[in-house]
Amino acid sequence: MSQKPQPPSHGLTACPNPECGEPVDPRDRYCGACGHDLSATVEQPAGQDRPTMPIAAPVWPEAPPREPGSLSTMTQHPGELPGTDSGGHALPAVPVRTDGPGGEPVTGPAAGPVAAPAGEPAGDPVAAPAGGAAAPPSGETVRGGGDFELAAPDPRAAVRVDPAGGSAGGPTGDPGGDAAAGDVPPGDVPEGVCVACRAGRVDGDGYCENCGHAQPRERDHMEREFPTVAAVSDRGLRHHRNEDSFSIREAVLPGGRPAAVAVVCDGVSSAHRPDEASAAAARTAGRVLGEALPRGTHPQQAMHEAIVAAAEAVTALARTGGDTAPDSLHGGNSPACTIVGSVVADGLLVVGWVGDSRAYWVPDDRTAPAARLTEDDSWAAQMVKAGLMNEAQAYADERAHAITGWLGADAYELEPHTAAFRPDRPGVVVVCTDGLWNYAEAAETMARVLPADAALRPLPAARALVGHALDGGGHDNITVALLPFVPPPAGAGSS
Fold first, then answer.
1. CA nearest 377: which of 413, 328, 430, 422?
2. Does residue 52 have a pLDDT over 50?
């Protein structure tokens, strides 16, 4: 579970005001009884200080060039799969070879601009810039160093399974219908009957009157499936509730072309009401994407708008009271979450994120390299990017998962990240929280644990990934969504 950076402790157990003496929390700034400023009264012993790190916008030294094999584990970044960034500019391509020791992938030096389709100047964006402009015409595939050369299979050969609770179009038969976490279809056990003994009646407190077994809550384990996208979320083995959430849906682009959408959110456990924050963000982002894509909004622009809307929805939670003080709108510990989403539409693969939830690309041909499509907004990622630590050292530090970006009223200035890619071979997009990627961090590791038939059977594959995290210890909530990707046939039109 992601953590916000926490304020330093003042080390007091009671208010130093002689007329008060009220017990205080070590991280309170003011006494709750008399309002005394606790931090102002604390003096550090001689020779000791309490340094703090401006984690929002750190001034890091320039990162040194990354040499092959310089990191302890293989790390992919968005630039290592040809694509465009939030401004519509081409991401620098980094070719990936497989001639390393033992056949392991290694990264080479940064390549030049991404090759452009015939008739377009080299270095132009692969996808249209944000704003809804058209992508490269004629359906030509943009290649980056020859990484993607395999022909796409016939998409009609894919096994199509009706989503739970509805027809092949959606839960209610609507082809653009949404499946958000929380809309869980009923299982095989009749309502009100214990899931453990399958005989006893469940009382109002959620316990079986026959065997005493506590019944799972709705969000403890959630699964949803459409023909082109599936998701699974699980509480894990160590947390008392599931603070992750997701939203998946299918949409129809202008002209009748299909699109698949997945949004995954991870509530910040150190904030108030993290479960509500993740649910609000996932629901809002999924809705905005589902409304924008049929209107013809470019998927990358739609993703940006969805993240901004999700941030506003989480911020609004701080205004609704609950256990959050009104002043948390301007600081404090208001509801917060991370977000990552993906859209697969018309030969385009778009990702967007804030925080440390991730998206991976895993080609169907596992001899080809996988790639990580997102870069964490976290302390560890900043240290690795600056060249101050290698990945193993950074993620071993206790500050590793302190996030530098999140959605919420007390977040720093929101800067949604988006990137667009055009792979020319079939594969699967893995969208997940750190509850999964902590057990499959490197892209090649994620490719190894993803079942080979994930493109044909995304829901069983998502279950298998959740099972991998549970087998590894299940220390966090686990959520993963899978979106099979099939490039358009050669010569087909593209929006």
1. 413
2. no
